[in-house]
Amino acid sequence: MRRVAILISGGGSNMEALVRDMGGDHPARAVLVVSNVPGAGGLAKAQALGVPTAVVDHRDYPTREAFEAALTQALRPAAPELICLAGFMRVLTAGFVAGWEGRMLNIHPSLLPKYKGLNTHARAIEAGDAQAGCSVHEVTARLDDGPILGQARVPVEPGDTPDTLAARILPWEHRLYPAVLRRFALGDKRPVLLP
Ligand code: GAR
Fold first, then answer.
1. 20 to 30 A from 109, CA-CA: which of 18, 98, 143, 144?
2. Mind listing the pLDDT tens digit for each residue in 94-107?
3. Rounded Cα gap, residues 174 and 59, in angstroms
């Protein structure tokens, strides 16, 4: 059974989808949810699901390295083997990422390699793209880069706003990330393509 820590910053709907999937014959178990934002909605969701939580508030630390040292301390007792970033909105340093190479996943709300960074849905609409979606990838030192482990595509509809497009994509995030984690936990890195 692979031990999985999930890092969040917000509502934690992807975290919830991952935790709910990790039962029964699933090859992994959620052992800890960490938020860098105190009071993030996902913390209460994790507790309700019976998963231990921790908060490491990045504002308490003078540098990214100091924040990450505290994050490492918070993770250690749970002894995770894999990390899933799920709406975790801090950039991690190359040093931290190197320590988790091949063992850290992220979900990003665009069809990577398009639209790394923020405001992905607005950028897809602005560009006139016919399709948008989400990607799960291995985390490497470069932001929103790294081998793609799965993607889900949805149409961009006439009149879409960033909010309507996000609402169409989010349920696919909740299908894609658990599907990728199931495979990845068994060492299978072949991309999951949805729908
Ligand atoms: C999700 O849409 C996720 O793809 C995105 O934040 C949202 C978190 O929602 N992640 C990023 O933008 C990462 N750069 P959630 O907290 O409900 O899972």
1. 98
2. 999 999 999 999 99
3. 29
pLDDT at 121: 98
List the chain residues with pLDDT less than 50. Answer: none
Q: What is the pTM of this model?
A: 0.98
Catalytic site residue from 108, 121, 137, 174: 108
**According to the model, what pLDDT value does residue 27 have?**
97
The whole-number pLDDT of residue 20 equals 98
CA 190 – ligand 1 centroid, Å: 23
Atom of ligand 1 nearest to the CA of 40: 16
CA distances to 30, 95, 140, 143, 186 from 101, rounded to whole Å, are 19, 10, 7, 14, 16
147's tokens? 């081998």
CA–CA gap between residue 103 and residue 10 (Å, rounded): 22
Q: Strand 2-8's sheet: what is its strand order? A: 53-55, 28-35, 2-8, 82-85, 104-108, 131-138, 148-155, 192-194
How far apart are alpha carbons 20 and 133 in whole angstroms? 22
What is the C-alpha separation between 54 and 21, in angstroms, rounded?
21
Ligand 1 site residues (CB inside 6 A) read 8, 10-14, 42, 86-87, 107-109, 134, 170, 173
How do residues 139-155 score in pLDDT, each as one tens digit?
999 999 999 999 999 99
